[in-house]
What we know:
By secondary structure, the protein is α/β, with parallel strands linked by helices.
Amino acid sequence: MSDPIHIVVLPGDGIGPEVTASALQAMEAASRRFNVNLAWEEHAFGGAALDEAGVAFPEETRAACLSADAILLGAIGGPAWDSTTPSKRPEAGLLALRQALDAYANLRPVRVPDVLAHLSVLPPDRVGGTDMLVVRELTGGIYFGEPRQYSEEEAFDTMRYSASEVDRIARIAFEQARSRSGRVTSVDKANVLASSRLWRERVSRLHAEAYPDVSLDHMYVDNAAMQIVREPRAFDVVLTANLFGDILSDLASTLAGSLGVLPSASLGGFSPLFEPVHGSAPDIAGRGEANPVAAILSGAMLLESVDQHGAANLIRQAVDNILTRGIMTLDLSSNGVSTSEFTTRVCEAIAQADVVPSTT
Ligand SMILES: NC(=O)c1ccc[n+]([C@@H]2O[C@H](COP(=O)([O-])OP(=O)(O)OC[C@H]3O[C@@H](n4cnc5c(N)ncnc54)[C@H](O)[C@@H]3O)[C@@H](O)[C@H]2O)c1
């Protein structure tokens, strides 16, 4: 057996503990097939940590996160903490965590298997088979640029990017493209914005110097929004700045039909963080109704980040296999099964799949 992979698990609030438990079961089942040794420890985070320690991101959790190989987060927040001051809310913990990890790259894969295409906002024959990855710059751009000012007469923000900020996020997009269909669409507004002109220039330069094998095209953000809706299957990796990525990743999320199936990764200078796109869903927490697919697929992305591609693929195939057999949770089907039933079926599919044992 290999050296253990150290994972910090932050179950959080609401359905967070339910879906992270499912993800861990699937990760454990897949790792067993490949002789991979997972070692995980849970730490308090979000509302649960506020109740326990009085802060959403306790020092002990922070230290554990910074020394982990990877972090798996459930979700945070809920009505119990809504009335507290902003610095005492669970969301403050999430921002502090991303900051501590210098998580500058947010990755959101949007896959729409044919079996789920009928749930999309788009017609099934247009959306089925969509498989895109939005790579969004997360720590720069207009959300952080200075100067910024607000008065009742006038307000402004600053959209600022340095060459090195563009290079590091573009590198991630090109690397991701190499392990997918090899295509990057870089989204900007270079016809109007100076920061976008620099963005386009740096992306093109990096492409020519280091990634000529990847195909690159540039698209203005307004056109990109239209094309994602018109022809989602035409996209592979979509590379965007912070503001554009915020909007386009939510737009792309609607293609999948349920929040419950969308995983994400946040990568940067320290341990990579993996979490479902959805929140803590207080309306269904504790009922065994949560869809664990987003968390399970986040677990697959985590395994990929530590080079366990075989185990990651096995999880993805098992999820597809179970969904294709019509076994789904209640958000996807009126005959839906419980979170634990769905998870058990995925783990069975993992245990029964034909695999060539290896650690890669
Ligand atoms: N990253 C995070 O932890 C995160 C992200 C978004 C919202 N939140 C927090 O979550 C709380 C609830 O927010 P919200 O209601 O706006 O968003 P939400 O994503 O929690 O829920 C939106 C709707 O989708 C459903 N849903 C979400 N995930 C589901 C799943 N896995 N299976 C089945 N149904 C699912 C919910 O039942 C709800 O009806 C708030 O406190 C919010 O601040 C946290």
